[in-house]
Amino acid sequence: AQTVTQSQPEMSVQEAETVTLSCTYDTSESDYYLFWYKQPPSRQMILVIRQEAYKQQNATENRFSVNFQKAAKSFSLKISDSQLGDAAMYFCVLLSSNTGKLIFGQGTTLQVKP
Amino acid sequence: DTAVSQTPKYLVTQMGNDKSIKCEQNLGHDTMYWYKQDSKKFLKIMFSYNNKELIINETVPNRFSPKSPDKAHLNLHINSLELGDSAVYFCASSQGLAVYEQFFGPGTRLTVL
User: Fold this and answer.
1) What is the distance of C-alpha B99 from the center of its chain?
2) From the CA of B38, how many Å to the nearest CA of chain A?
3) pLDDT tens digits for A69-93?
4) What mean pLDDT is predicted for residues B22-34?
5) How far is B6 from chain A (nearest CA, A)?
């Protein structure tokens, strides 16, 4: 079975500081994709960043970057220069290339303090 | 322009009723999905359609029936609503199955009284 685990239910960061959200996953597939999605209080699910498993280079999108450790099955999200608008629930997500299913972690609620 | 839209955004109804949630995407995507987010915010896939064909059908009570009249629409009909059906239901779409990221609608909060 494929699983995604986010061990931090809640995290807090000071505005302008850096925070890292952890995620581990388990899959027997060699070809898959990983995402971080953000869900602010508006409820809308927003894609933050994407990583292809076959790529060794870590993905980066502006202030957001990942640390993808394929052997360890770890996929953490780093948010630099945190902003108040970053406050949301963040989901680590595995996309199975065999089934097309998105498998979600439990989510991490990020609080940004001014 | 809204890429993936759902109607209604809120739905309050009595146990035993039948209700539908509609979803439309204007992205030209081939694949559409329904997800359920429970009270603990956990998201799980329910169904997936690719070119109007059912691809993924998770262990969902048969009171839930998806219908895809065309590639741009995927509706969810729920019969004999139960208290446990209360949740937020998300529609999503993607360019294809298994490769591309999914774009989500705004969600429909269903409350069964």
Assistant:
1) 20
2) 11
3) 999 999 999 999 999 999 999 999 9
4) 94
5) 12
Cβ-Cβ contacts under 8 Å for B22 (sequence gap 6 or more): B6, B7, B73, B75
Q: How many Å lie between the alpha carbon of A18 and the closest alpha carbon of chain B?
A: 25
Rounded to a whole number of angstroms, the distance between the first and last alpha carbons of chain B is: 34
| Contact map slice: A 9-48 vs B, CB within 8 A | 33, 35, 37, 39, 42-47
- The pLDDT of residue B2 is above 80: no
Q: Looking at the partner chain, which of A43, A91, A97 has a beta carbon nearest the beta carbon of B88? A: A43
Q: For the segment A22-32, what is each residue's pLDDT rounded down to a tens digit?
A: 999 999 988 89
Mean pLDDT in residue range A34-45: 94
DSSP A18-64: -EEE--EEE-S-SSEEEEEEEE-TT---EEEEEEETT--SPPEETTE
| Interchain CB distance below 8 Å, B48 and A100 | yes
Question: Of how many residues is chain A composed?
Answer: 114
